[in-house]
Amino acid sequence: MSRQQEFDFGIPIPPLQPRRPDRVFFALFLQAKDRAAFWSLQKHLCDLNGITGSLLLKERFHVSQRHVGDYKRLRSKIEFAAKRAGQLVEMPAFEVTFSYAVSFPGRPAAKGRPPWRPFVLLADDGPVCELSRLIGVAMKANGLKSADHFVPHMTLAYDNSFIPRQPIDPISFVARELVLVHSLRGLTIYKDLNRWPLVAAP
Fold first, then answer.
1. pTM of the prediction?
2. pLDDT digits (tens, 9 = 90+) for 87-99
3. 8 A C-beta contact, residue 157 and residue 49
4. What does the pLDDT read at residue 31?
5. 18 phi, psi to nearest 5 deg
6. Distance CA 70, CA 74 (A)
7. Burial grade of 151 (CB within 10 A; 0-12, 13-18, 19 or more)
8. Mean pLDDT value across residues 194-200
């Protein structure tokens, strides 16, 4: 399984004191005005499917684009390279639409621990995939590794259950900026390293 899958699919769930606590990634976040609709859908789908595990806070709803890396300590050269990569990306704002919900395999049961699976909304292919591709090209141009595999999705919760793919009434948001995030793993803290508006090239 690729490193991109590990990051996006929540594998593994970070321990309380992860060996590499500094995670950096590119993502698209909801604007404040969009959060209520997705929060309502989260509650509805989790109730419908009997999901009682860990639900994401609505402020953290996002679509991961590219995983930069996990580090013992975030070094300035990595941050600099990631920011340079973000500056190279040019793309107009676009709509992201989700039409299905499903559980990803996640962390399997092991050593007496139950499985821990992300429950997600699957995004339709389109500009969201093209943006991920452009970020990957820019990362490689700045000396960063980038996995090719990408499944656009938004995680709603983590739970032991496996929920088969199911259609939902389509729900959308407009992606207006790309965010470079520094995640402090195990502390549930996100720090913005930089933001770039999604605008067409002049």
1. 0.86
2. 999 999 999 999 9
3. no
4. 94
5. -65, 150
6. 8
7. middle
8. 92
The pLDDT of residue 28 is 98
| Tokens encoding 79 | 């941050």
User: By C-alpha distance, which of 132, 128, 156 is closest to 60?
Assistant: 156
The domains of the chain are located at: 3-8+20-197
Nearest to 69 by CA among 88, 82, 86, 56: 82
- Give the separation between CA 11 and CA 135, rounded to whole angstroms: 22
CATH architecture of 3-8+20-197: Alpha-Beta Complex (3.90)
121 phi, psi to nearest 5 deg: -95, 135
Neighbours of 154 (CB within 10 A): 24
User: Phi, psi (5° rounding) for residue 94?
Assistant: -150, 165
What are the tens digits of pLDDT across the range 19-50?
A: 777 899 999 999 999 999 999 999 999 999 99
Burial 107-127 (b: 16+ CB within 10 A, else e): beeeeeeeebbbbbbbbbeeb
